[in-house]
Amino acid sequence: YASGKLARIIGATESWPRVASEFKLEPPVDLALANGKLRIHGRIDLLLSDNASAQARHLSGGKLWVVDYKTGGTAEMKKSELQKGRGFQLVLYAVALRQLGGAEVGMTILKPDTPAEWQLKLSELGEFDGFWEELCRMQDGGVFGAIGDMRKEFGRGAVYPLATLDIDADVLFE
To answer: How many Å apart are CA 24 and CA 52, to the nearest integer?
Structure first.
């Protein structure tokens, strides 16, 4: 029921000629920063592009829409949630997509009872630019992360990547 309803919601959207489900950020996207490179990888539930000629690693300047499917809960992409350290997974994906050439990137947590529209734009999140530098420092210092598979191809495992965990508010504002 839920998957069918989500499919109908997305199917009713217009102006998105390119669609990729389970879009993999592989090889990882390296985000060049002042103090190093932040490696971003993962799997996006649904990626839409307004550019019909977009290709996986060359997104050529169009609008992109990152959609994460949820069947329950109250999650929604809001700046206030990011300020509490929640919801950075989609933002990391959006940053990687911008690095791959996306001109404008929007994000949505889509549930069966929500409209299919952007909930947040990457361009609205300039206040978090310093946060990527801190994540890079943590990555390079071994504070978090692992070499090798973090979890199974599908499903949950015992170890989760940082993007799925809450980040302490003190870390966000240092």
So the answer is: 19
